[in-house]
Amino acid sequence: MTHFTNIIIIGAGPAGMACAIQLKRYGLNPLLIEKDEPGGLLRNAGVIENYLGFPDGISGIALIDLFKKQIEKYNVAPLYNKVISVDLSGDQFLIQTSTGQYECNFLVVASGTSPVQFTDITLPADAGGLIGYEIRDFRHVKQQQIGIIGSGDAAFDYALQLTENNNQISIYYRSRNIRSIKVLADRVVRHNNISLYADHLLTDVSKSPSSDGLRLSFKHANKTIEYQEDYLIFATGRKPVLEFLSAKFEEEKEILIRKNRLFFAGDVKNDLFRQVSIATGDGIRTAMAIIREKAN
Ligand SMILES: Cc1cc2nc3c(=O)[nH]c(=O)nc-3n(C[C@H](O)[C@H](O)[C@H](O)COP(=O)(O)OP(=O)(O)OC[C@H]3O[C@@H](n4cnc5c(N)ncnc54)[C@H](O)[C@@H]3O)c2cc1C
Question: 232: which strand partners?
């Protein structure tokens, strides 16, 4: 059976939640579909210091709790399902989730980003939970040595968060320059538990023969250098989550956007401009555009 609903929002991150709240304020009842739990990428963030209203900063997790309270206040109850495909059925959007099928008039894609998988080298298949991409999978790790690959905001934010459990962190990056925002870079440079390795190109990762950890090989100054780490986290970029859009849908996409029936909000469309305030602003703007379209 296909369920019909006027507006569907894919993703309960900051963009999707803000959009749902604004639509509710107009008296509309969007269906907010989330595959995991509300909050999205904020679950990876350490302290958010640039979201207005929190002069002392707020942790990503605490901000999610507030966002969740706010959607509850507006009776937005996400449907916990993964969107598998988005297609067109006549004039409607047809959304297939892990457990059901839905049709709608307006579709908001607020599905955020996923980590770019590191394919420069083959990673050991038997590394179990020692290698990963999302810091939330490593928050339980205590008093270990953790290698991070990358020199951007995420790499530096992850490093600072992981020191809270007395871990020793090594950040490796292939360029000579740091890409992270200065405020994080300054904290990392000052931190006794974090070491920086510039100009280090990762060439091999294997299970360590002498411990339960990993052996990392790098090319540095025309030499190969090896290091041991207990865990390895890649913070080497993110890409929009759009794999559920069918090929046919892709052909019609631009027309639907022009008709104000299809919207992309938040990180999924913002390239490097990935910030909570931009995502929530996008969500609100999208809701207002839907209202205007309905009024016409
Ligand atoms: C380490 C780190 C630090 C950060 N620090 C800051 C900071 O200091 N300040 C700041 O402003 N921003 C910061 N950010 C960025 C901020 O977290 C993001 O900009 C924001 O979360 C984007 O919101 P979004 O709703 O667009 O996407 P997301 O938060 O990614 O949410 C997308 C949601 O869609 C869901 N979804 C995806 N695919 C499907 C599917 N097929 N079916 C159903 N649901 C789906 C996901 O599960 C997710 O919940 C940081 C991010 C990281 C990683």
Answer: 131, 147
